[in-house]
C-alpha cells in the first residue's frame, strides 16, 4: 500500500505590531550608512516585540491564526512541536504555556490529549520539529502543529544588532496536504562550532559574524551534497545529460538571518551543483579557477579565499539569472522583519505564497541552518490544493504596523515593563510572579 504524501497543509505568520526602520535615526545613531543595511545586508525594517510579547505569546498567536484559518479543532491535534532558541523557561516546555493560552480560547482541557515538546538547535529547530512531525504522521493519524517562534536580540550597538527581528510561523502538518508534500529524503550535516551561542543566563547572543558566515555556507553545501546523494540513491530525480539537481527545483529557500545571506548560500549551492558541467567551465573562464586548500597556509585563509570566490561567482550573469528566478522572491518579507531565527526559512515559503509563486507540480528545495552548527536540506512538491488556499495578506499587513523611535526601541530592548501598545485581541504576558512563573492571558 502506497504511503499518502505528508507535508505542510497551511501556514500562518504572526509578527509584532511594532517595527523600527534601519534607515534614518537608527542608522545615524549607529554611524552606519543606510545603504549598508538596506542593500548590504538587505534589512529595511526590524520587527520589535512589545513588553507583553515573548516567544510563547508569538507562538500562541500564530497557532490561533492557523487553527481559525483552517478550521482545526483541538481534539484533532496530536502534537505541537515548537522550535525556538528564545525559551522562556529552562525546564518547562514553551508548548505547555502555549497550550495554556490556547485553552483560554478553546476551553479548559481541550488540548489535554495533545503532547508538546520544545526543540532547540538554534535556527534549525523548527525544521527538526517538522521532520519529527512527518515521522510521527507516517505511523499515526491526526494533525501536527509545528511552530518556529523567536526573538532575535543582540547587544545594543553590536554588529549583530542590525539583523534583529521577531515573529512566529505556524505550520499545519498532515497527510495529503494542500500546500507542500515533503519528499522522504533529508540531507544533513553537523559539527561542533562556536559561531553563535547564548550561554545560560545571558539576555543576548554571542556571535562570531565572519566565522558564522563560513559555517553557514559550508554546512549548507555539505547538507545539499548529502541530499543530492541520497535523492539519487532513492531515485527521486532523473537528470538529463548536462542537467543538475537544482535545474529541477523551481525555487530554493534558505534560512535567512539577513536577506543577503540567502544570496551567499545560493552561490555556494549552485557552485556545488554546477561543478563539472559546461556552465561551470564557462564561469571559471570568466572568474578563474576555484581556490585549492593546499595553496593556502592555513584553513582560515582558505575559507576566506573560498568566500571571496563565491562572491565573485554571485556577480556572474548565469548566477544572477538563476538567483532572480529561484531565490530572490523568498526574501520579500524578511526584508521587512529582520531575522526571526527558527521561522525564517518558512517566512521564505510564505513570501513565495504571498507573491503567488507557488504553482502546483513545482518542486521546491529548502535549506535550513542552525548555528553551532547543523544544516538540513530537503524538498517538496507544491500540491493542487494550493490554488484553494487564500493568501494571508502579509505584504499588505506589513504596512499597517506602528513605527517606533530609537528611544522606544532601546527601552523595549533593555526590558521595559511598559507596553507601547495596549494589548487587544491577543494573548499577552500579564506578569511574572515572585517565584518566576509566567502568567499569560487573552486580552479581548
How would you characterize the overall build of this protein?
It is a single chain. 35% of the residues lie in helices and 23% in strands. It has a single domain (6-443), classed as Peroxisomal Thiolase, Chain A, domain 1 (3-Layer(aba) Sandwich). The mean pLDDT is 96. With 444 residues, the protein is of the alpha/beta class. It has helices at residues 25-30, 34-41, 55-70, 94-106, 125-137, 209-234, 259-274, 278-287, 299-313, 317-326, 344-354, 394-397, 406-413; strands spanning 6-14, 18-21, 45-48, 77-83, 115-119, 143-152, 165-175, 180-190, 196-197, 206-207, 251-254, 363-370, 374-382, 402-403, 426-432, 438-443. The strands form four sheets. Strands 5-4-6-7-1-8-13-12-11 form a nine-stranded mixed sheet, sandwiched between helices. It contains 13 helices and 16 strands.
Write the layout of secondary structure elements.
Elements: E1 6-14, E2 18-21, H1 25-30, H2 34-41, E3 45-48, H3 55-70, E4 77-83, H4 94-106, E5 115-119, H5 125-137, E6 143-152, E7 165-175, E8 180-190, E9 196-197, E10 206-207, H6 209-234, E11 251-254, H7 259-274, H8 278-287, H9 299-313, H10 317-326, H11 344-354, E12 363-370, E13 374-382, H12 394-397, E14 402-403, H13 406-413, E15 426-432, E16 438-443
Parallel strand pairs: 2-14, 4-5, 4-6, 11-12
Antiparallel strand pairs: 1-7, 1-8, 2-3, 6-7, 8-13, 9-10, 12-13, 15-16
Helix pairs in contact: 3-4, 6-7
Amino acid at each position: 500500500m502506497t504511503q499518502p504524501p505528508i507535508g505542510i497543509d497551511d501556514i500562518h505568520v504572526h509578527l509584532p505590531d511594532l517595527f523600527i526602520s534601519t534607515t534614518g535615526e537608527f542608522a545615524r545613531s549607529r554611524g552606519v550608512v543606510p545603504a549598508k543595511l538596506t542593500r548590504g545586508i538587505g534589512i529595511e525594517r526590524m520587527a520589535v516585540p512589545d513588553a507583553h510579547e515573548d516567544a510563547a505569546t508569538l507562538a500562541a498567536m500564530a497557532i490561533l491564526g492557523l487553527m481559525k484559518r483552517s478550521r482545526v479543532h483541538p481534539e484533532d491535534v496530536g502534537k505541537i512541536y515548537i522550535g525556538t532558541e528564545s525559551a522562556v523557561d529552562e525546564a518547562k516546555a514553551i508548548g505547555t504555556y502555549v497550550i495554556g493560552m490556547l485553552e483560554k480560547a478553546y476551553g479548559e482541557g481541550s488540548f489535554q490529549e495533545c503532547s508538546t515538546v520544545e526543540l532547540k538547535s538554534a535556527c534549525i529547530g523548527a525544521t527538526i520539529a517538522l521532520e519529527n512531525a512527518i515521522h510521527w504522521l507516517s505511523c499515526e493519524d491526526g494533525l501536527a502543529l509545528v511552530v518556529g517562534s523567536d526573538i532575535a536580540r543582540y547587544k545594543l550597538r553590536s554588529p549583530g544588532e542590525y539583523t534583529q527581528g521577531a515573529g512566529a510561523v505556524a505550520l499545519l502538518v498532515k497527510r495529503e496536504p494542500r500546500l507542500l508534500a515533503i519528499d522522504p529524503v533529508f540531507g544533513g550535516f553537523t559539527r561542533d562550532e562556536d559561531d553563535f551561542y547564548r550561554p545560560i543566563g545571558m539576555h543576548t547572543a554571542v556571535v562570531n559574524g565572519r566565522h558564522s558566515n563560513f559555517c553557514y555556507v559550508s554546512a549548507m553545501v555539505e547538507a545539499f551534497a548529502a541530499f543530492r546523494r541520497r535523492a539519487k540513491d532513492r531515485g527521486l530525480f532523473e537528470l538529463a545529460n548536462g542537467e543538475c539537481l537544482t535545474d529541477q527545483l523551481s525555487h530554493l529557500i534558505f534560512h535567512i538571518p539577513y536577506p543577503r545571506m540567502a544570496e551567499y548560500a545560493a552561490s555556494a549551492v549552485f557552485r556545488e551543483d554546477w561543478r563539472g558541467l559546461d556552465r561551470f567551465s564557462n564561469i571559471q573562464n570568466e572568474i578563474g579557477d576555484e581556490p585549492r586548500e593546499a595553496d593556502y597556509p592555513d584553513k582560515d585563509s582558505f575559507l576566506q579565499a573560498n568566500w571571496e570566490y563565491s562572491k565573485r561567482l554571485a556577480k556572474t550573469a548565469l548566477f544572477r539569472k538563476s538567483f532572480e528566478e529561484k531565490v530572490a522572491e523568498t526574501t520579500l518579507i524578511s526584508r521587512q522583519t529582520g531575522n526571526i531565527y527558527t521561522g525564517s526559512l518558512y517566512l521564505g515559503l510564505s513570501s513565495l505564497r504571498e507573491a503567488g509563486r507557488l504553482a502546483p507540480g513545482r518542486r521546491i528545495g529548502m535549506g535550513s541552518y542552525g548555528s553551532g552548527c547543523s544544516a538540513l536540506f530537503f524538498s517538496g512538491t507544491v500540491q493542487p490544493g494550493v490554488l484553494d488556499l487564500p493568501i494571508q495578506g502579509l505584504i499588505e499587513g506589513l504596512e499597517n504596523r506602528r513605527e517606533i523611535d530609537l528611544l522606544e526601541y532601546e527601552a523595549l530592548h533593555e526590558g521595559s515593563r511598559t507596553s507601547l501598545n495596549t494589548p487587544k485581541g491577543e494573548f499577552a504576558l500579564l506578569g511574572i510572579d515572585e517565584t518566576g512563573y509566567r502568567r499569560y492571558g487573552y486580552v479581548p
